[in-house]
Design goal:
With 323 residues, the chain is an alpha+beta fold. Helix content is 30%, strand content 17%. It is globular and about 55 Å long.
């Protein structure tokens, strides 16, 4: 995927005063004065971890699978070079701490620092990422799509209620636990402390998922996440992209401005209606469906209290991937 350019925090501004985000949960993290050490429930030493293999690589570093000799558990360790990620690390760490209050958001087990690198320890997601499963399955049936979507709604609403815009929502950043439930991850491009009505001006996102208002450099709010969510919902339901994304950034921008997503025969009307609402090209047109999304007929069979508590059926109930 082609990432849009990000030059740093100086590009971001919020047009209304900050409103501190409330925190319902916090990871247990205490940075040690000693190099490479951090304390969670038990001490964790970056240098004592047994690194097993690389899980992925991004613009700011890599994620590796490691075994912790103290807890005897598997961890995903995100290692980032200080020079390249200084402008995003504080946001990522703070959102990961905040995310501990929601079962569908990735949270942090520990934060570690060396003279040249930052390392974030997180739970290992044995099910891989959603993009991998979408490539394998092309598209999901309506029940599976609905379950995935309901868990995403819970995670996104938790972020938005706490003043956080994800800004880079895509299937690569939606990970699956070995139980089959999801966790939204990768908060390096997120924006915190966004009050109601504020407009953010920061060039963020990934081609194929980014909202029109970001592409047009008009400023955006949480409704940009709604658009990205609509793209993912379309891909799960149709097995293709709603807008042309295989060419250049300019070609994607043109498709985003001019094209209307195509729905093949056989897609249920409730699925079409919710996707069309989320993929509206102006944020104001997305507002109504975003604010009332849990009551949309597409989610008629969802018990939201069960989803919130993690009691609902997982989208992939028996999936497990050994490392």
């Amino acid at each position: 995927m082609d990432k849009m350019s990000i030059d740093g925090v100086e590009m971001m501004s919020i047009d209304t005063p900050y409103m501190p985000a409330r925190r319902l949960g916090d990871a247990s993290v205490q940075i040690s004065p000693h190099r490479g050490l951090v304390h969670t429930d038990q001490p964790m030493d970056l240098y004592s971890l047994e690194f097993l293999k690389d899980l992925g690589k991004g613009g700011y570093g890599k994620v590796s699978l490691a075994s912790d000799p103290v807890s005897e558990g598997l961890l995903a360790i995100k290692i980032m070079d200080k020079k390249s990620c200084e402008h995003i690390i504080s946001t990522e760490v703070e959102v990961l701490r905040l995310a501990a209050g929601c079962p569908y958001l990735m949270s942090m087990r520990a934060f570690m620092e060396t003279p040249t690198e930052y390392a974030i320890a997180m739970d290992y997601m044995a099910g891989g990422d959603l993009f991998h499963h979408m490539k394998d399955s092309m598209m999901f049936n309506t029940k599976t799509t609905r379950l995935f979507a309901a868990e995403m709604v819970c995670g996104l609403q938790y972020l938005h209620e706490h003043g956080v815009i994800h800004s880079d929502l895509k299937p690569d950043n939606i990970l699956l636990q070995d139980t089959g439930h999801i966790k939204i991850s990768d908060f390096g491009l997120s924006v915190m402390n966004v009050s109601e009505g504020a407009i953010v001006r920061w060039n963020a996102g990934t081609k194929g998922y980014v909202a029109p208002e970001i592409m047009n450099e008009e400023g955006y709010n949480h409704l940009a996440d709604s658009f990205s969510f609509g793209v993912i919902l379309y891909m799960m339901s149709v097995g293709d992209w709603p807008f042309y994304s295989k060419g250049s950034l300019d070609e994607y921008h043109q498709s985003l401005r001019e094209h209307i997503p195509y729905f093949p025969p056989g897609i249920c009307t409730n699925t079409i209606d919710i996707i069309k609402g989320l993929l509206c090209k102006t944020p104001s047109a997305r507002f109504a469906i975003t604010t009332s999304i849990r009551s949309h007929p597409f989610f008629h069979s969802i018990d939201w209290s069960d989803v919130e508590c993690g009691r609902s059926d997982p989208p992939f109930p028996y999936y497990y991937q050994d490392y």
